[in-house]
Amino acid sequence: MKLHFAMAVLLGLAGCAGYSRGTVDTDGIYRFREAPIEVRAPAECLYDPRVYVAHSSVVFTTGLKNWRGDGSGQYHVDLADLPEGLSDPAFFVAAATELHREAYERNNGVLESEEVLDIHNRLAFQSVGTHRNVYVMVVTSIQFASHIVTAHLVYPKRDVSGQPMEIPWQCYERFVASIGYAGP
How many CB atoms lie within 10 A of CB 118? Predict the structure, then answer.
């Protein structure tokens, strides 16, 4: 039961290995083939946006420059079937808490905060941490009727000159809020 959810969290933290170039529709929306889930590409938050896809995952990143160097970050969305039992809110939060913590530990990350959220009347769990004091990882898992959708932001802690950078919360929150069921 935990395996599907753990895979969703870890896919986004692993980078773009195994991904191929993808596209979004002309309206700026990426629609998953595996389920009626969609997300708006964060084009306004990226320099020269690129899209990479793998089975049940999409990554939006910068194209011409290094994402760490230009401060745009990487935005990921991973889709997993909702395992039996995770439809219970308390179990979902407990499982998400445990798996987010394990994902940070496995990736040499330090968990800094975590909270339960309501995103468009859907239960969600969000954690924020750092990886080797080089970049920030924000992970948000959202419970849908038959799927878990996990959004990630990997963002540099410092710019190329070494100055601290602020997390682009406005971009990330719009990105997460754009995740929903595909429809007309």
Answer: 9
Contact 57, 77 (CB under 8 A): yes
Q: Sign of the CA dihedral 100, 159, 51, 145?
A: positive
The predicted model gives 148-154 an average pLDDT of 91
Burial (CB count within 10 angstroms: exposed 0-12, middle 13-18, buried 19+), residue 122 = middle
Lowest mean pLDDT among 32-41, 77-86, 112-121, 133-142: 77-86
Average pLDDT, the chain: 81
Q: Is 25 exposed, middle or buried (0-12, 13-18, 19+ CB in 10 A)?
A: exposed
- Nearest alpha carbon to residue 7 among 55, 47, 41, 59: 55
